[in-house]
Amino acid sequence: MKRVAAKSTGDRNVKFTKRNLDALSPPLTGKQVYYSDSLTRYLQLSIGRAGTKTFVFYKTGGMDSKKAQTWKVSLYDR
């Protein structure tokens, strides 16, 4: 599978499989890029400029807060 870089927000919804995650590349500009899992709600993969891939749990809003909350879950290990 060829390497893919997100061009817009619409390109950042991916089915999280080993093959698809391995194909994702670091951002060309900016500090990091986030990809959302197409099957698991709130699960994202953050890819830093150096290529480090980290799973995060991302949720916006809620009963007490209107701001986004992010929790680091795990590093992606190839």
What does this structure look like?
- With 78 residues, the protein is mainly beta.
- It has a single domain, classed as Double Stranded RNA Binding Domain.
- 8% of the residues lie in helices and 36% in strands.
- The protein is built from 1 helix and 5 strands, in the order βαββββ.
- The protein has a 5-stranded mixed β-sheet with strand order 1-2-3-4-5, with no helix packed on it.
- A hairpin with a 5-residue loop joins strand 2 and strand 3.
- The longest helix has 6 residues.
- The protein is globular.
- The N terminus is likely disordered.
Précis, in short:
By secondary structure, this protein is mainly β. It is built from one helix and five strands; from the N terminus they run E-H-E-E-E-E. Strand 3 and strand 4 form a beta hairpin.
Spell out the blueprint of helices and strands.
Elements: E1 13-14, H1 18-23, E2 32-37, E3 43-48, E4 53-59, E5 69-75
Parallel strand pairs: 1-2
Antiparallel strand pairs: 2-3, 3-4, 4-5
User: How do the helices and strands follow one another from N- to C-terminus?
Assistant: EHEEEE
Query: Could you name the CATH topology?
Result: Double Stranded RNA Binding Domain
Number of domains: 1
Percentage of residues in DSSP E strands: 35-45%
Secondary structure class reads mainly beta
CATH architecture, by name, is 2-Layer Sandwich
Q: How far from one another are the termini?
A: 15 Å
CA-based shape: globular
The tally of strands reads 5
Largest sheet: spatial strand order? 1-2-3-4-5
The profile of the biggest β sheet is: 5 strands, mixed
Mean pLDDT over the residues = 81
Uncertain segments: 1-10
CATH class: Alpha Beta
